[in-house]
Write a structure and sequence with these properties.
By secondary structure, the chain is mainly alpha-helical. The protein has 5 helices and no strands.
Length: 155
């Protein structure tokens, strides 16, 4: 393995670890009462450089793969597959978010909701923004941008 691939692998692993921790450790379940505020903000600050590095290395890796793939049809198939995966993940993420909002009893403006007056970013809704779906969605988006930027530059 090359040095770049090792950096990319480690950044991807630690980035996923950050998403996992924020979703499963720092997000409260709808049936649990929390009064300590959103500690995930500290984890997000800690993992932000790792998230950025992961996106950067993923972008570079996608451009490198696009460079190594000489056949335009293969690039088109890869790009089409990624766009389909991206679209499917958006639908899955919308469904996941809707289920969480129902479990919380409604939106932050609903007086009967567990998150009433908390806003959309709180200890109950961290998993809307940091979960396996958003991890995959953002990385697929970075790969699509990387491939498209390579194709555009070389046309």
């Amino acid at each position: 393995m090359k040095k770049k691939e090792i950096y990319w692998s480690f950044s991807l692993i630690f980035s996923f670890l950050g998403f996992y921790l924020i979703e499963n450790v720092f997000t409260f379940k709808p049936n649990v009462m929390s009064g300590n505020g959103n500690l995930a903000i500290l984890a997000i600050l800690f993992f932000s450089p790792i998230f950025i590095a992961s996106y950067f290395f993923t972008y570079k890796q996608a451009r490198q793969i696009a460079n190594n793939t000489k056949n335009r049809k293969i690039k088109a198939v890869i790009l089409s597959s990624l766009i389909v995966c991206f679209t499917v993940l958006i639908f899955v993420l919308v469904d996941y978010t809707s289920e969480l909002i129902v479990a919380l009893g409604g939106t932050p403006s609903n007086p009967k909701s567990r998150i009433y007056r908390f806003g959309w970013f709180n200890q109950y809704t961290n998993s809307i923004y940091f979960n396996a779906y958003t991890f995959l969605l953002t990385h697929i988006m970075v790969v699509i941008v990387g491939i498209l930027s390579f194709v555009r530059k070389n046309n």
